Amino acid sequence: MVVAQQYRQLVKDRECERGFASIKKTFPLSFEGEGDKGGEVDKQSHNRVRKMSNWQELEHKYFMNAVERIPVTLVRGQGARVWDEDGREYLDFVGGWAVNSLGHCHPVVAEAVAEQAHTLIQASNQFYTIPQVRLAELLVQNSRLDKVFFCNSGAEANEGAVKLARRYGKLRLNGAYEVITTINSFHGRTLAMVAATGQPKFQQPYAPLPAGFINVE
Ligand SMILES: Cc1ncc(COP(=O)(O)O)c(C=O)c1O
């Protein structure tokens, strides 16, 4: 019963979100304020122009505070443009940290995602799946690389690279394992990548950190 009620609320919220998303009114491009991935958002300048919205208050209520966000709630995107809940239009120079290489909602991407979601949603890594093999082949044929390693985030990609390097060190370099990274770099939020990230403000709260990372100027 409780689940049914929660589900109905979720559907209501989604409809509300879609309502926001369908706001067609667009304002002149207006990127107000700036932020960076280290979380040094110029909040004051944002707050001068805009109060926290209900969605942002709700986020504070339910989300563990693991990242400092720019106070903008995005509801839809098209190519290189995105719109917030008030219908303001922005040019998206972030692209999900360069993840959305074809922009937002490219019709071919949207159709492929929808088609796969209707076909086979997830299979774990215990089984072969055809799209995964086809994508791996495509990547190898169009790069100078021999093999691919698929993962879910930048941090996991870096963890994979470090594990690969350590394996190589063990097999071919008398057990060499240290990885050198630079001060002020950013490599992700897993514990090992916090050690790789050369920024004390990300490291100190989680010490002791995994060994084997040297941060240099
Ligand atoms: C250079 C770099 N490496 C790694 C990461 C971590 O990626 P993810 O957030 O997908 O784990 C980021 C994310 O900002 C990054 O900018």
Keywords summarizing the entry:
mainly alpha; 217 residues; 9 helices; binds pyridoxal-5'-phosphate; 5 strands; 2 domains; two-stranded parallel sheet; 42% helix; three-stranded antiparallel sheet
Give a brief rundown of this model.
Helices cover 42% and strands 9% of the residues.
Summarize the structure in words.
With 217 residues, the chain is mainly alpha-helical. The protein folds into 2 domains: 2-108, no CATH class; 154-216, no CATH class. Helix content is 42%, strand content 9%. It has 9 helices and 5 strands; from the N terminus they run αααβββααααβααβ. It has helices spanning 2-21, 43-49, 54-62, 95-98, 107-117, 130-141, 154-172, 191-196, 200-203; strands at 74-78, 81-84, 89-91, 179-182, 213-216. The strands form 2 sheets. Strands 1-2-3 form a 3-stranded antiparallel beta sheet, covered by helices on one side. It has a two-stranded parallel sheet with strand order 4-5. The site of pyridoxal-5'-phosphate (PLP) has 9 residues, from helix 7.
Write the topology of this structure.
Elements (H helix, E strand, L loop, with lengths): L1 H20 L21 H7 L4 H9 L11 E5 L2 E4 L4 E3 L3 H4 L8 H11 L12 H12 L12 H19 L6 E4 L8 H6 L3 H4 L9 E4 L1
Parallel strand pairs: 4-5
Antiparallel strand pairs: 1-2, 2-3
Principal-axis shape: globular
Largest sheet: 3 strands, antiparallel
Percent range for helical residues? 40-55%
The helix-strand sequence is HHHEEEHHHHEHHE
